[in-house]
Amino acid sequence: MFMVLIFAGLKGALAKNSLPGLDFTVFTAVGFLAYFLWRNVVSRSMSAFGANSALFAYKQVKPIDTIIARVLLELLVSIMATLVFVGIGLYFGFDLRVKNFNMVILAVVWLVLFGFGIGLLGAVLGHFYENAKKIMEVIMAPLLFISAIMYPVKSLPPVLQELILYNPLAHFMELIHGEYFYTLDTTYVDFEYMLYWTLIPLFVGLYLYRHGEKGIIGT
């Protein structure tokens, strides 16, 4: 909430009319809620094995169960945070109308699945190779600013548009924003690219987990 207020305030002071017809506070809130949901799913998943290793003494508890539990917890926390933002928005009279509610929900579920795949892959690699987790944390650090969270892709120069669209997270943000706001669209969203980035880490993560489960439990 603090970050939404800061960025919305800066936007209003420096470039108030750069996105006509769009409530930038709501735009920022939607972007931050989606981004922090994804980031928390990934980061909590990557640390799940080490933080819950004591539970592996029980045969009915599998390492992947701890990741699934953390993903569900982050989803519930995000839902509660969203309800708080909706309540604040209604109280202060912000325009919270959604262009396509079903597609927004589908995009968020897809985003969570994408985060689960990346988190699972990072958890398995990070358990056996500590440097892999550190590398992923370094890669994730600048994503807040290069994932179309605080701006739509169409507002960027063509050269920057081409560069930012190599980031799969930017496609998810564009999809959520495009289906939420009436003044935006999903022109820059590449669904095939998103599908590859969802399925490949997920299947690789599941494959590595299947072959490394005993090693994870043993350590």
Task: Explain what you see.
- The chain is globular.
- It contains 9 helices and no strands.
- The model has no long low-confidence stretch (mean pLDDT 90).
- 72% of the residues lie in helices and 0% in strands.
- The longest helix has 30 residues, at 63-92.
- Helix 4 (63-92) packs antiparallel against helix 5 (101-128) and helix 5 runs antiparallel to helix 6 (130-140).
- The N and C termini lie far apart (39 Å).
- It has 219 residues and is an all-alpha fold.
- It has one domain (23-218).
Topology:
Elements: H1 2-14, H2 24-46, H3 48-51, H4 63-92, H5 101-128, H6 130-140, H7 158-164, H8 168-180, H9 191-218
Please outline what is shown here:
With 219 residues, the protein is an all-alpha fold.
Main beta sheet: none
Which residue ranges are poorly predicted, with pLDDT under 50 across at least 5 consecutive positions?
none
Total separate domains:
1
Number of helices: 9
Mean pLDDT: 90
Give the ordered list of helices and strands: HHHHHHHHH
Distance between the termini: 39 Å
Task: Indicate the proportion of strand residues.
Answer: under 5%
**DSSP, total strands:** 0
Using only CA atoms, what is the Rg?
19 Å
| Helix share bin | over 70%
**Per the principal axes of the C-alpha atoms, what is the gross shape?**
globular
What multimeric state do the chains show? single chain
Structural class: mainly alpha
